[in-house]
Amino acid sequence: MNIPDQVALVTGANRGIGRQFVLELLERGATKVYATARRPESIDVVDSRVVPLRLDLLDHDSVVAAAATATDVTLLVNNAGISTGAPLVTGDLADVRREMDTHFWGTLDVIRELSPVLAGNGGGAIVNVLSALSWFAIDGSGAYSSAKAAEWNMTNGVRHELAAQGTLVQGVLLGAADTDLTDGYDGPKIDPRDVPRLSLDGLAAGSIEVVVDDWTAMVKASLAGDPADFYARIAELLG
User: Fold this and answer.
1) Contact 170, 203 (CB under 8 A)
2) Which of 68, 84, 67 is nearest to 11 (CA)?
3) Cα(155)–Cα(234) distance, rounded to whole angstroms?
């Protein structure tokens, strides 16, 4: 997929990586970008091609309404997410459920409502913004890591299911990006602009997975080894 003449819908488009997707899509010549958020008034309309829409991953009616409006979409970018920091055992179970409801059920809801639109417009593509924490967990990431792991394999599942309608489904995996979501993290962070740049380059090449940074590449390469060795290395790297 090449971006000129495409119509995109981006979730969580009011800040961070979502906003960078909107800007990169515009720069590459997208015809229209539906920029969605729970509060569409928070979206910075930087171009006449930007159409703000309300979409809350925890509100099915808002997802249905967005799909009914955005009937010309050819590219769906599932970026919206949260991080509660909830531990799985001692944390508030409501926060644990909210992570799963957002990253897995909410993202799947958007895909289910928008995939017929994509089919009607020739197939198009879906990008799911995932995380290196789809593949491992550390203290404070239990709920988030579990939800992202579920979203990662859901990405693989819908890729197979939507192949027949000609929809390319891409997973984008990264470590920490320098956004509001990682304000409390002191480790290395990538430039959030790298995420849409590499993702859209990958779409042009037909890539179903994009690993954005060296940290995530290291995590992926370690999966075939002994997890005890991997977690010992993680403990050393994180101090």
Assistant:
1) yes
2) 67
3) 26
Find the angle CA(68)-CA(71)-CA(76) to the nearest 5 degrees: 100
Q: Which of 114-118, 136-140, 196-200 has the lowest mean pLDDT?
A: 136-140
| Distance (Å) of CA 120 to CA 31, 51, 144, 237 | 18, 21, 34, 48
215 neighbors 221 (Cβ within 8 angstroms)? no
Cα dihedral: 103, 59, 98, 44 (round 10): 70
Residue 227 burial (CB count, 10 A): 11
Residue 55 has pLDDT above 90, yes or no: yes
The answer to whether residues 182 and 139 touch, using CB atoms and an 8 Å cutoff, is no
Q: What is the CA radius of gyration of the chain?
A: 17
Confidence of residue 224 (pLDDT cuts 50, 70, 90): very high
Residue 159, amino acid: R
CB-based contacts of 160, cutoff 8 Å, min separation 6: none
- Distance from the Cα of residue 46 to its chain's centroid: 22
Question: Over the stretch 138-179, which tens digit does the pLDDT of each residue have?
Answer: 998 999 999 999 999 999 999 999 999 999 999 999 998 777
The one-letter amino acid at 34: Y
CA-CA distance, 25 to 137, in Å (whole number)? Answer: 32
**Angle at 231 (CA atoms; ends 230, 234), nearest 5 degrees:** 90
